[in-house]
Amino acid sequence: MDIFEKLRTNLGSLGQYMKQAHGYFAFPKLEGEIGTKMRFRGKEVLVWSLNNYIGLANHPEVRAADAQAAADWGLAYPMGARMMSGQTSKHEELEQALAEFVGKQDAFLLNYGYQGMVSIIDSICGRNDVIVYDSECHACIMDGIFLHKAKGGKSFVFQHNNIEKCEKMLSFATKRAAETGGGILVITEGVFGMSGDLGKLNEICALKKEFKFRFLVDDAHGFGTMGATGAGTHQHFGVMDGVDILFGTFAKSMAGIGAFVACEEDICNFLRYNMRSQTFAKSLPMPMVIGALKRLELLRTKPELRENLWKIVDALQSGLKAEGFNLGATNSCVTPVYFDGGVPEATNVVMDLRENFNVFCSVVTYPVIPKGQIMLRLIPTAMHTLEDVKYTIEAFKQIKMKLEQGKYNLSQIPDIS
């Protein structure tokens, strides 16, 4: 068979909806300045789908720092990978500042979050090591685990946030590690990006009294939003020392590109010399590094940004709950709103929100969540207002009523052309 012919006839679980979805439900174009109001298909919409938690994307100090750094350095410098010719004092400065902020000895910059997490797992875990992980871990973690399995490694999964099952899997992992002479790495997330609930970091750390393992936490959504200073979910739970390896990304609260891993200095040095995703990739361009330094400075010195974020989060979530909406188990900024229905209802709900209420948010259906459910995912930011919250809740009340009346029960996905 021609491999291209196979691709043409099997577009994948999401690609099969390409004709109906492209440009509207998938790959939509939000245009204009990044903010709570942007343009979608020619008209202004209230946007609840950008991970610009702290509102730094268009902060004037950030824009000025980005522009000046681009003017000073261009986008090419430094050339080459960090190990060969791409090292600068600014890269080192950012790493040290990140380490201090999250309470670790050292940090290592990564070009991208997704490939970074894959490569962290691949570097740390050999074929004799064992991984124990939460069933709802992000795709980047799963791909890292797939690489581990490809090397002949073993992994055990526990049901989402089920500490009793985690303990059971640790028992299996301990037996396996004793047979192979390997170690154990437990992986979970600080904030789960779809459901919004927190990983039980404190309870997993407590299992170290019984089991010997190291603990890796993906805190992409917690870094900058959780904890007394925004250091992350490990700070929120008071287990900054119990989390051995902390991963964070610049794509959420920092409104940028790149990521980092923070841990003990000797482990960080191991990663510097062994992470294939960094060894064979060009160094982060200087404007991104200098821009990240400015973003981190604002995270540290302007707590009012995070305070305003949580004011909006609390208003939105409490207001929706007061109107009887199901938000699941979220206890973070991520605000999922669940409804009963399938793909046709979901598409009609979203079209009504966007076309008639001018509210833009993301929609999630099966296979990401169980069949028969629709999830509208709202991301509050420090830039939203209480008026935005009030308007959105009223719009959601209207679509909930229509959904219950069966007005969205069409058998086919509507034409968006």
Descriptive report:
The protein has 417 residues and is an alpha/beta fold. The chain has 2 domains: 11-47 and 303-404, Aspartate Aminotransferase, domain 1 (Alpha-Beta Complex), CATH 3.90.1150; 60-301, 3-Layer(aba) Sandwich (Aspartate Aminotransferase, domain 2). The chain has helices spanning 3-9, 12-15, 18-21, 60-73, 89-102, 113-124, 139-150, 163-180, 201-206, 233-236, 265-274, 276-279, 286-301, 303-322, 343-356, 386-404, and strands spanning 30-31, 37-40, 43-47, 106-110, 130-134, 154-158, 184-189, 214-218, 245-249, 259-263, 335-340, 359-360, 362-364, 373-378. The strands form 3 sheets. The chain has a 7-stranded mixed sheet, with helices on both faces. A 4-stranded mixed sheet has the order 1-2-3-12. Strand 2 and strand 3 form a beta hairpin. Helix 5 (89-102) runs parallel beside helix 13 (286-301) and helix 15 (343-356) packs across helix 16 (386-404). The longest helix has 20 residues, at 303-322. The chain starts with a helix and ends in a 13-residue tail after the last helix.
Low-confidence stretches: none
- Name of the level-1 CATH class of the largest domain: Alpha Beta
The CATH architecture of the largest domain comes to 3-Layer(aba) Sandwich
| Helix and strand element order | HHHEEEHHEHEHEHEHEHEEHHHHEHEEEH
End-to-end gap: 34 Å
Note the main attributes of this structure.
417 residues, alpha/beta, Aspartate Aminotransferase, domain 1, Aspartate Aminotransferase, domain 2, 4-stranded mixed sheet, 16 helices, 15% strand
